[in-house]
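U., I forgot to send this yesterday:
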Amino acid sequence: MAQTSNLREFQEAILSKLKDAASQVGGESSSRLGVTVGDKRFLINLQDVKEVLPVPPMQLVPFTKPWFLGVANVRGNLYSISDLAQFLGMPPTPKSANNRILLLSTESTAQVALLVDSLIGLRSIQGMQLQSAEDEADFFSLNVYKDAEGGDWLELDVEALVQNKSFVQPI
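Result:
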């Protein structure tokens, strides 16, 4: 029971920080949401994420691409949910209690959510080293960073992802 309580507190703390970051006026925040997708770690700009939720029940949509998981009702709004790992050419995200959906907040699309393996938490890019993104160009990456422990992080270009023709037309 204590583990469930700690997970809930962790999620509430992240959501609170997401909302605080979204309401900041002025310069670009150096904080990013860290998530795992397949065997990769991604950084997502907090301005691109409206909310982080456990995976809700989904309604399958026939005759769509395998990475398009279906639609889900989130507080009366239908969201299309896509498996980010599978869309990027990785194996499908294995079902786990750690899976989360990210409700995206972009200028070009509404009601879109991404399934990720798990949340890592907030990360600051100020403490990371910018790397060359040549090898990761297929992953809608803005930048590639290396953290102090030598781990690689891909910064997801959410706007490029949601404007991609394949992503927009999952049929």
